[in-house]
Amino acid sequence: DEVGVCSGSLTKPKAAKQNELKKPNNQIVVEDLTGAYLPKKGEATSSKQDASTEKVKKNVELYQPMANQSEKKTGLRPIVIDGCNVAFGHGRDRFSSLGIKICADYFKKLGHEVRVFLPQFRKHHNATTDPQLLDAMEKDGTLCYTPSRRTDGKMIVSYDDRFIVQYADANGGLIVSRDNYRDLLNENPEWKDTIDKRLLMYTWVGDTIMFPKDPLGRHGPNLEEFLRF
Fold first, then answer.
1. Any alpha helices (H) in the chain, and if so which ranges?
2. Does domain 72-226 bear CATH number 3.40.50.11980?
């Protein structure tokens, strides 16, 4: 059995089951990410150190060196792709690596930084089509695998949606998915703006991916404005 997410459809498991796999409070996942906190050498005062420590305590699952949160961001927003959602959308409930590549290539050609999140087990799953496409995206840094492991005959999969929303929230990114992430909004209300205002849904027509010109409705920004800070 695969416990967690990305089990073969666009429907995600309910939060109650996800919470069974919560990490210990003292477990820190260190990732080489762009963006969040690094006091400069010789400049850290006691108050700055306290503030930095508090930031790490508040968000123990994510650590981002070399960031300046006070600096106003400009230009194109980072794109964070829900790999499972896009793959199953393109494959019509079959996992399609090509769908992920088409989506990622679209935003790369527009000049965006693109990150795709996908559970690790998908890399070697027998239902994964064109695995060489995933290998190429992993090699160039586009694809980031979230943790999964097999124990006692069961596949334990950390909740990939949490990685997606958390990374987008920390970096001002747009999430490409048809998931509403309501369970994560209930889990962490601080992600409300990211989930409500930075979610870009799509439509597949064969191998053509389409995005709405009005992502937040007729009274919101157009797509070109939506893609920028």
1. 15-18, 46-58, 83-91, 97-110, 131-139, 160-171, 182-187, 192-197, 223-226
2. yes
